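cron nightly-structures :: item 1 of 1
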Amino acid sequence: MSATDKDNLLKSARFSVAPMMAWTDTHCRYFHRLISKKSLLYTEMVTAPALVLGGAIHLLDFNTEEYPVALQIGGSDPTQLAQAAALGAEHGYPEINLNLGCPSDRVQSGSFGAVLMTQPSLVLRCLDQMRNACNAEITVKCRIGVDDQTPAETLPSFLGMIESTGIKRVTIHARKALLKGLSPKENRDIPPLDYSLIREMKRAFPSLHISVNGGVKNLIEAKQHLSDGLDGVMIGRAAYHTPYDVLALVDPEIFDDKRPPPALEVAALMIPYLEKHLRAGGRLHQVTRHMFGLFAGQPGARHWRRRLSDIGSLRDARLADYSALLEEIEKIISLQIELETA
């Protein structure tokens, strides 16, 4: 990877959209990119065994318009992870992120994700082999700790181990992962957030680029974390459920760049992509399911969600159905403007 690519990644890492299973697929990332040109986007987690043993190379597909985009992989076998990282780099991903934070039962049964934070020596071998296997930048996403660990004691040594491998960027979810007794959903909400510990880690490891994740709901909170000295902020569910409300502010307020077009224009810009997807045999809902929150907080939001759901339920939904909905939303917005200026 060239020095320019590394510099661009570093700049975009100031704000990123979290990798989210079943959500941040290639369609979602293309849509998000229309709203923010500068954010760093992540794939869903792809497991190393699926790529190396299962031959599921199609999971690496993405559109060049998604750049800057990073691949997140999961696994616990150093050799498999190295091979998966090499495949990702060959497919054009400039960053490969190792998942050390997912608490799901399925991930635990595969001995990877957050449970690996209890095996730092194994993580060390995984990271070393991944870095030696390709020229993509290797990064890590982890929790502040797991189960009975005391984060203030174990996290510094864990980050020290990561830094010793030559890795420069880490994203830390500010909650512990309680693997015994909590569901993945509960692990996103119940363990208390500890942002102060992450700020302490930044002071302790000034050479590491540290991004915070977990519980960040909007750009006001994101900017506060940056003001507090952290290098980056990663937002997940809020960026997905209210994409325009969150991402439209990122470029002007985080990257000092221009604002995106209005939400209605973003919806219209999706038409060529939808047309291409339908021609290839895809269904409209496979793309539009990521767009329900586009008008959140704006006139026509409820109508948009309801009608988009209706259209998505049709097996033979056509582009004309989507275009008709855009006309309906445009009328609602125009009427609202008339009422406000009357």
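cron nightly-structures :: done
The longest helix spans residues 319-341.
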